[in-house]
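Posting for a labmate who doesn't have an account.
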Amino acid sequence: MSISDRILQSQWVLLLQASDNIYFAPVIPNKKLQGAMTYLPHGVSPKDVLMLIDDTVFGSAKVGMCLTAKGIFYKASFEDEQAYLFEHIQQVEADIGILTSSILINGHDELNFSQLDKGAIRALAAFLNECCQGKQATKQTNVNIDAEMQIMIDLFAYFITFSAGQWNARSKEAVSDHFTKLNDKAVHQYVEKLLNEQMRFDYEDLLHRLADLKDKLAYNFRRHMIEQLVYAMALGQVEQDQADLFMTHLCRVSNVSRAVFPDLVKIIYQCLAGEINQKKVSDLNHEQLQACQLLEIQPEVLSEQTLQAAYRKKMADFHPDKYQTLPESVQHLIEQQAQQFNQARAVLKAYLGV
């Protein structure tokens, strides 16, 4: 059954339509669709939008959510747009609190809606679960890979994506470069599957799997694995203190003494930081250096996290929605400044590959 058919048959649609901020095709206002196009990815057209949530105060629809036959596209204020394909969604649930209410995707990705009441949030969660039914049953590729290599790759992927909370171009490239150098067809196939499906892992489950395998793993393999995983933490920009804690967990679970690696985290982080910082300053072109200057970011500390923090700080002061009562000429100047911040962020995001 198609998503369009599910919408027609859903018992939740009437409740959702009662909200002033939720629209269903074919009666979505063109102005709302134009606003949503600012965060919808390339290749998604207005006619693909089956449902739209406008989560703005003034009705621009530049913040909110769109639903298409492929999945959910979401944008929060001062945040990057997010995409959730139905085939990757296992569960949608409402997270109702005393002050805030939100939607949880797969138990961890949070979608906040400031303009929807708690009843609408509950109805939306139930509706999205209906839309997801049957969409997860995509064909899975079975790959015959040794259990020890699989846990190594899975843990590596977990730490690479830990800080960002999701896969991005940089983390995919790091995993691909690291493991496809091995002359092992099964490893190549598993890494390709992992990247294509953007597989996600639960840390506790990974530790349990490692504990079950430790007696079958040679000591040298366990030691080498820990070294490689600390490297993954550094590549994934895990905070150094957190990396030290992760390493302690891994040593305990794999039965390798922590004393074997007295300064491993410190050494890897220092070496990798020096290499990255030197590469960043030398690699940045004039436009990228100007973007750093505009957002007040030191080039040597440029990362996905520092970029996002600097952009939020700037937009908090210059966001056009805060100056609706000022003269139009002043609003225009503020809007131009906000556009410059957006352009600077786009330049640096392209450089970082996110």
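Reply:
Got it, the structure tokens are right above this. The domain at 3-132 is CATH 2.30.29 (PH-domain like).
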